[in-house]
Specification:
Layout: H1 7-11, E1 13-18, E2 21-26, H2 30-43, E3 62-64, E4 67-73, E5 80-86, H3 88-103, H4 110-128, H5 134-148
Helix pairs in contact: 3-4, 3-5
């Protein structure tokens, strides 16, 4: 409905959805785009979570589905670009999950440890691999190596 009403062109606002979450990226009036979106949602008998709804500038950044989006100057070109990182909460969540999987059975054999954590780590890495996640991956690698008792475990 957003597209059929021509809102991307009329309001300079693109709608991005994932399951029941959505963001509007606006070049002009964010409040007008939010007003139109609210009307549309009401017509569909849906509810907007006003606690999660806010208007912000890309330079301030925002979290969406486990990713942190922010507009920053590129260190190589000097141009403004949108960078996407795993949120701090997502990074803490994977560390907590790995602790939970391994602490109950300590000490465990290295092969058992790898079998337990490999699908969890690969799932997390695959979800964030299209983001600017190299630093998060290095921190996760360090966390695993320090807490595993193994010499090295590569993700």
């Amino acid at each position: 409905m957003w597209h059929s009403r021509g809102y991307p062109e009329k309001l300079s606002a693109t709608l991005h959805r994932y399951c029941d979450d959505a963001i509007l990226v606006c070049r002009k009036s964010a409040s007008l785009a939010l007003e139109k979106f609210t009307e549309l949602v009401r017509r569909l008998s849906l509810i907007i979570n006003h606690q999660k709804t806010r208007i912000t500038k890309l330079k301030e950044g925002f979290n969406f589905i486990g990713f942190y989006f922010a507009k920053r100057k590129s260190p190589t070109s000097g141009r403004n670009s949108i960078y996407v990182f795993p949120t701090k909460q997502s990074q803490q969540s994977i560390r907590n999950r790995l602790k939970y999987l391994t602490c109950r059975r300590a000490p465990i054999k290295p092969q058992t440890f790898i079998e337990q954590i490999k699908p969890v780590v690969l799932g997390w890495v695959n979800y964030f691999k299209h983001a600017n996640a190299s630093e998060a991956f290095v921190r996760l690698q360090d966390f695993i190596n320090v807490n595993s008792g193994l010499d090295y475990f590569f993700i």
